[in-house]
Structure formats: structure tokens, C-alpha cells
Amino acid sequence: MALEIKETQSCWEFLRKTELPIFIYGMGDGALKILSVFERYNIPVAGFFASDEFVRGHSFEGHLVHKLSQIEQLVEDFVIVLAFAAGYESLYKRVNEIADKHLLLAPDVPVAGGGLFDYDYFCANRDKFEAVYDKLADERSRMTYENVINFKISGKIEYLNACTSDKSEVYGSLVKLSDKERYVDLGAYNGDTALEFAEAANGSYEHIYAFEPNPKNFRKLCKNTEQLHDFTPFNAAAWNEDTVLKFTKNEGRMSQNSAKGEIETTALSVDNAIEEQVTLIKLDVEGSEREAIEGARRHIAGGANVISALYHRNEDLFAIPLQLLEIDPNLQLYVRHQLYIPAWETNLYAIKGRNENEKN
After folding, report:
1. How high is the pLDDT of residue 247?
2. In this structure, are residues 145 and 335 in contact, taking their beta carbons and an 8 Å threshold?
3. Is 11-107's fold the same as 164-358's?
4. CA separation for the pair 58, 157 (Å, rounded)
5. DSSP track, 297-326
6. CATH fourth-level superfamily of 164-358
7. Cβ–Cβ contacts within 10 Å for residue 63, how many?
8. Nearest in space to 247 (alpha carbons), one of 293, 213, 212
9. What gap in Å lies between CA 188 and CA 182, rounded to an integer?
10. By CB count within 10 A, which of 174, 275, 328, 352 is most buried?
11. Where are the domains of the chain?
12. pLDDT (tens digit, 9 = 90+) per residue, 192-242?
């Protein structure tokens, strides 16, 4: 079965050529990133609008921020460019309701690194995408992989709608937990994913290790996980060696390793930090996944299952799976996309030694 990519025109090229006025939905960092690409492609922006509860007569980048209803009264036909992430159900539903009435695109702009994911980028790396596609363990993974690539090229959210999976599937069928799990949470944020693991394991596990570099998030992590047994937190980034890195001041999940960062942060390799063999490693480290994987090479080669984000950098969709297969060729690869616009929450599940009758 061959990888099928239907989209050959990037959303940026479509926006450059359209004669319809273009309105950006949202403000903040996402809108600024999109505006920088607009400038590069000479794409004009007609204005901005926000959800009704955020419109207070203010302006953004020299444009008065409208409500959608105001634009609908003034303009008969137009294109909407989504400039924020819709990661919870009510907002996801609202975006889709708007897309039912108007042409809406959600351009893919990488969270980390540079460049744009367009058809030329896909073609330049086709052999790597196809190598991953051929190694995917079930039809759901192959369908998801195709849809995510088509979305990233075109910005059409129907591709994400077509491949969204329920989060309950992670510990329900993809990752089978025993009561002997030693779980490593890389990018633990405020403890939410460690708590999800502990709940899925019904509190029966051997140990949880959690790495979080941001000091404020680390304090929340420690507070929120006080009730967990056998829990070891590290106020450190996951890396390929023990060193000191510079991080940005961003709060939330978006604190990133950067040469221009203001905060010096301890970084550790999992192989050095944890002696006993671990069984499950989760990575969501804002674009540093490949370094963190290299730093956990011993544990992965020793049999650890891996859950990794695939959406921070353009190359993640092929580079991370191929890196894991280089460490352990017997890993079985699954890809799922959970409810999110854009293609954030597209994750890889690299599982050791599942039976054929478990794959679907």
C-alpha cells in the first residue's frame, strides 16, 4: 500500500493567489507567525476578528479587531485563516461550525525550527515519509499519517476531522500497562500526564520519574503530584548529555531550548539520571525530542516503550520514528491524532513486542 498525498498546493500559495479578502481569526504569537509568512509571500490581510467574548474595541497590528458577525455584514465572501490552537471540544466545534459557513484554513507553522511544510518539502523528503509509512503497524496509523501530511500542506481541517482519535485509546489499547511499569515523563509540565498515567495504572506501578525544566511549572508539578507514591521529579530538561542549556521565559508548555534563551537550565540524559531499566517513556519537550531520545538510548534499546509528540518540528513526522527504529528495529509504530487544530497532539506510539492479533 502506497502513501497517498492528494494536496499539491500549499495553503500559502492558495492564499497568495486568491482574489477573496483574507481575515485572520485570532491574535497573539500565532497571528504574528502567520503575518511573517504573509509578508514573505506578499499575501495581503484584510483584517482580524476574534471570538465575541474577546472583542473590546481594541486593535492588533494596526487593524481594528472585529467580531465575525460584523465582517459578515460588511463582506459577502472571504477567507478565514485560523491563527490559534483549538484544543478543547467546545472551541474545536466552534471552529468547525465557522468552517461550515466560510472557507477556513489553519496554516501549519512549526512550533520549533524554521521552514514551512509544503508540497515541495514533502517531495524533498518523500523517501523518508514513505519509509515510516511502510513501517506503520495498522491501517488507522497509515490513514492518520496520510491525513496529517495532507493537512500540513493544505491547511484544510477536514483532514484532521477525518483522523481524530479518542484519548482513551492510549492506555486502552495502544499501550498495555502492567503493575511493574517504570514510567518516565519528559516534559511533565504541571503533572497532568503523570497523573493520567497513574490513573490508567490504577495506582499500581513501580516508579514515576518526571522531568520539567521550567521552575514555575516544576513547583506546580511537585504540588499536584504529592499524592503519588514512588515519584521522583527532576527540575531539568531531557537532553542527550548532562549539561546546561538556555531556555526561553515562556510559561505553560511552550518553554523552549534556545540559543537566545534568557534562563540557564540544567539538562540531563535519562540514561545518566535513571539507573534501573524503565518501561515507558513519554516525550513532549517542545522540539527537543530527538536529543531526549538519544539521551535515553540505553533504556529504549533495553525494551522501553515510547510515546512521543510528532508535531513540534517539520521533520518530526519522519525523523523521530526513523531514529527509534535505528535504536530498536523491532519497535512497532502507531500514529494517532487527538482532538486538536492544527496538527498538534499527533503522537507516535513505539511499542515493543505486541502480538499480531492485538494490532487492530
Report:
1. 76
2. yes
3. yes
4. 29
5. HHHHHTT-EEEEE--SSTTHHHHHHHHHHH
6. Vaccinia Virus protein VP39 (3.40.50.150)
7. 15
8. 213
9. 15
10. 174
11. 11-107, 164-358
12. 999 999 999 999 999 999 999 999 999 999 999 999 999 999 999 999 999
Instruction: Please check whether residue 324 is in contact with residue 332, taking contact to mean a CB–CB distance below 8 angstroms.
Output: no
CA distance 44 to 38: 7
- The model's pTM: 0.92
Distance CA 53, CA 51 (A): 6
263 DSSP assignment: E
CB atoms within 10 A of CB 5: 16
List of the chain residues with pLDDT < 50: 355-360
Element (H, E) at 256: none
Whole-number Å distance between alpha carbons of 331 and 348: 11
- The 10 Å CB-count burial string (b at 16+, else e) for 155-168 is bbbebbbebbbeee
Tell me yes or no: is domain 11-107 CATH 3.40.50.720.
Answer: yes
Q: Parallel, antiparallel, or unpaired: how do β-strands 305-309 and 280-283 relate?
A: parallel
Cα–Cα separations (whole angstroms), residue 155 to 115, 117, 250, 259, 317: 15, 10, 26, 30, 16
